[in-house]
Structure formats: C-alpha cells, structure tokens
Design a protein that fits this description.
Order of helices and strands: EEHHEHH
Strand order of the largest sheet: 1-2-3
Distance between the termini: 23 Å
Shape: globular
Radius of gyration: 14 Å
Helix content: 40-55%
Largest sheet: 3 strands, mixed
Strand content: 15-25%
Length: about 90
C-alpha cells in the first residue's frame, strides 16, 4: 500500500516482513518501472504495517486477488512484471 510520496521518497507499507523482502529484492526493477510512470526514480522506504493484515474470511482468496488486479491497473502490471501468484 502506498502510504506517502514526498520529496522523491515513496513510502510503502506492507503486511509482513516477507513483503519487505520481496520489494527489496525487486527494488531496482520497481524503481525503473516507477521512472516510466512518474518520470523519476523515487527512493523506496518500505515498512511493515500489521493493520494491513485482512481478517480471515470465507471469501475465495484467488477470486479476491483476481478482482484486485482487475480494479487496479498498477497491481495488474506488477503481477505481470514480477509474476505474483497465490499458492494454496
């Protein structure tokens, strides 16, 4: 989740340390893509925000993930570029 973008620093919040690790591993590619979108390469500052953890629900997580991709073109592009997927 984008928290703030100010002074060429993009602050991102994710729900776990795994999210931090994934963003750090792909930081160069993500910053290149952001340059295409924003015209500049922002520095990334990624933190864990436990409030982002969704409560367990009876909704199919695969359908929810598909819906998110359809609603948000940025998420869809990230999934396409980095091959994100849900595993059972």
């Amino acid at each position: 989740m984008i928290h703030q973008y100010q002074d060429d620093v993009l602050e991102l919040r994710v729900e776990s340390e795994f999210g931090v690790k994934m963003l750090n591993e792909h930081e160069a590619s993500l910053r290149d893509w952001l340059k295409e979108q924003l015209g500049r390469k922002p520095k990334l500052h990624v933190t864990v925000d436990p409030s982002l953890v969704a409560p367990a629900s009876s909704r199919d997580p695969f359908e929810a993930f598909k819906e998110i991709q359809q609603k948000d073109p940025v998420v869809a592009e990230l999934v396409k570029r980095f091959g994100a997927e849900l595993k059972q």
